[in-house]
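Handout, section 4.2: multi-component inputs.
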Amino acid sequence: MKLVLCSASPRRKELLEMLGKDFSVRVASIDESFDKSEAVDKEIRKIALKKACAVEMNEDEIILSFDTVVVDGNQIMGKPKDRDEAIKMLRSYSNGNHGVITGICVRTKDKCYTDSVYTTVYFRELTQREIEYYVDTYRPFDKAGAYGIQELAGSFVKGIDGDFYNVVGLPLCRLCEILRDEFSIDLF
Amino acid sequence: MKLVLCSASPRRKELLEMLGKDFSVRVASIDESFDKSEAVDKEIRKIALKKACAVEMNEDEIILSFDTVVVDGNQIMGKPKDRDEAIKMLRSYSNGNHGVITGICVRTKDKCYTDSVYTTVYFRELTQREIEYYVDTYRPFDKAGAYGIQELAGSFVKGIDGDFYNVVGLPLCRLCEILRDEFSIDLF
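Output:
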């Protein structure tokens, strides 16, 4: 069976490489707009499923797709549209906590399984200067929630409750469990 | 002020680089043996302090030192001495949780501050094959506790409670807080 990652994200590619297995990358563009009237975990699985179904697949392939958002209170934080929005998002995380949720879809020729993984992230108190320095230096405009925990912003994080790699965008542990328990695929 | 990292660990060097500040590395070898009759958090701070005091320092330098151990029940897990011990350690983590504790010491010419940071790590159930594959492929003999969460073994981790970077060996967030609150040093 051949693994196919449905994601253009270099961070997801790096994470999947941690498993030490060959895979290819195949991406189809879909409408990723979020229906805010739906429960977040349901909606995020729907988008992951949409991504997995939008690519062509061969009989011997396993399609893996993911979608990640940040949830702060009732607000869904997508990619910030500009500097001001990124700063506002980070300020809202300061000295508090927010959630990161990733939808997963694993699809083979005869089965399709979706799930979601939730991690709580606790930020220390940030100064306005730190926030502006981070946004101006790292320009996190391609990141849902306006930060990457694997770079400088990792030093903003007092702690997390849940899977770290889920926060980066690919919940590796849950993926291995799904492959083993739902698809009888042991990677090792 | 110039940062000096007292550690030969390439992982700690990479983590400190995340802050984007220049620093030098200076290491003195000390006796790192652990007094198991003492409380772990006290003992780990003592070792960090010992490391920080063993290097020469200039007046304008800030010495940063760390020591990390894994605690599983009442057992202190250091670096495994061979394949069998590494396998035994990983088997003991499977489908359970253990702690990772890092001692920190920050030292300037007129002040020395020590602290410790604790993170709980939850492993999924591992098969004997996975454990052996990991040990034989990654040879984690230089790692306290016999695994690195930043490589394949990251997929063994269901979740953590606390700072991820503490598990890697350098609690970045706490370090920034100590520099700011105890030494009035804002890095940004």
